[in-house]
Design brief:
The chain has 206 residues and is mainly alpha-helical. It has one domain: Orthogonal Bundle (Tetracycline Repressor, domain 2), CATH 1.10.357.10.
Amino acid sequence: MFNEQQEKLLKRVEELFLRLGIKSLTMDDVARELGISKKTLYQFVDNKDDLVLKVMERHIQEDCLQSEALRQESSDAIDEIFKVTSYNAVDLGRMKANVVYELQRYHPEAWAKIQSYNWKQLYSVVYENLVWGIQDDLYRTDFDANVIARLHIASMLGIFDENVFPRPEYDSRILFKEYMMHYLYGILSEKGRIVLKEKLENLQTT
C-alpha cells in the first residue's frame, strides 16, 4: 500500500503522535521534526486529517502482519496471548494518554478505520485464538467464542475510557496486563490453568 519511503515517514509520524499527542502537533511541527519541507509533506498528504488517516492505515497494516507473525511463533493459544500482551504493552508504554481521545474527537475518519479494524481483523484474531485454545483443551468449552471475542474487544477499548480510568492515575500498560490476566482466568480450563501457572513461574525465574 505504501512504498518504503512512505512507510518510514508514516512510522516516524506515528512515533511523534504517540510521544507528543496529535492535536498539539501542526503540519509545520511534523515537517520540522521529520527534517523535510512542508511542500514535500504535502506532496504525500492533503492535510492533517489525511496524514492521521494514513498513519492509522499503516499502523493497521503493520499490526495485521505482526499478529500473523506472533501466531506463527506461538506454541499454543496461551503463549500467543502472552506474546500479544508483551507486544501491545510496548506501544502502550510509548503512548501519550490522550491520543485515543484525540483520535475520537478530532479525526473521526481515522477513528472509524481503527474501529473497523477492531471489529473485523482483531475480532478474527481473538476468535481464532479462542478456537485454538478450545481445541487444545486449554480453554473451557462451555462458552460462545463469538460472544466472548466481542466482549473481550469491548473491554479492551474500555481501558482507554478516561471517565473510568483517568490518567495519569491509571497506567495503560498496567491496566492492559491486569485485564489480560482477568480475561485469561475467565476462559481457562483446568489444564489451561496448569499451563498458565508454569508460564508465570518460568517468567519469574528468567
